[in-house]
Design brief:
The chain is built from four helices and no strands. It has 188 residues and is mostly helical. It has a domain of 110 residues. The N and C termini lie far apart (173 Å).
């Protein structure tokens, strides 16, 4: 064994230059032949299956990308529809609010008009009652005045006055009272 090793060392020592880089020709031919056989086997058996798996993988990736794009487009469409519905709902809400505000304003105007009408009716009734009370008070006052004036006239005259004379005296007195100013004097 020592001899074979020393022969191999001797053969190596004899090689120089380009011989050191290049293998022996027989080894080079054997390596090229082995490479061709391996390449032929791989090209016939392994490479088609590898190409097929790569194609399937590319098709799967492409399908997934197309599905993602379709899902993205669908999501965008749903988002746009949602925004449209939201804008429509806001518009409808604003319309309902405006309508309610107008109805409230109309109700307020109706209530004010009814209140004013009721107030006018109350004032009219009060004025009618005042007029009626003034009429009653005036009638009562005339009756009281005529009674007092008759009693006074009878005391002054000392005898009973007939109805026509009594009426004339009362009417004259009432005219005098009606022409008096509120401060007790006569008006001009």
């Amino acid at each position: 064994m020592f001899v074979a090793l020393s022969l191999a060392q001797a053969a190596e020592e004899e090689r120089t230059g380009l011989d050191l880089i290049l293998p022996p020709v027989a080894e080079l031919i054997g390596g090229a032949l082995a490479f061709a056989i391996v390449y032929f086997v791989l090209n016939r058996i392994a490479f088609p299956k590898i190409r097929e798996m790569i194609k399937v993988r590319q098709d799967t990736i492409q399908g997934n990308l197309e599905a993602a794009e379709a899902a993205k487009a669908e999501a965008q469409g749903a988002r746009d529809e949602y925004k449209s519905q939201l804008a429509e709902a806001r518009s409808e809400a604003n319309r309902i609010i405006e309508e309610a505000r107008q109805q409230a304003e109309q109700v307020r105007k109706d209530i004010i008009a009814k209140s004013e009408k009721d107030a006018e009716a109350i004032v009219a009734r009060a004025q009618e009652q005042i007029q009626a009370e003034q009429g009653r008070a005036l009638t009562e006052l005339q009756t009281t005045i005529s009674t007092m004036s008759i009693e006074l006239a009878e005391k002054v005259v000392g005898r009973t006055i007939d109805a026509s004379t009594q009426k004339e005296l009362v009417d004259a007195y009432i005219r005098d009272v009606a022409t008096m100013s509120p401060n007790g004097g006569r008006s001009n």
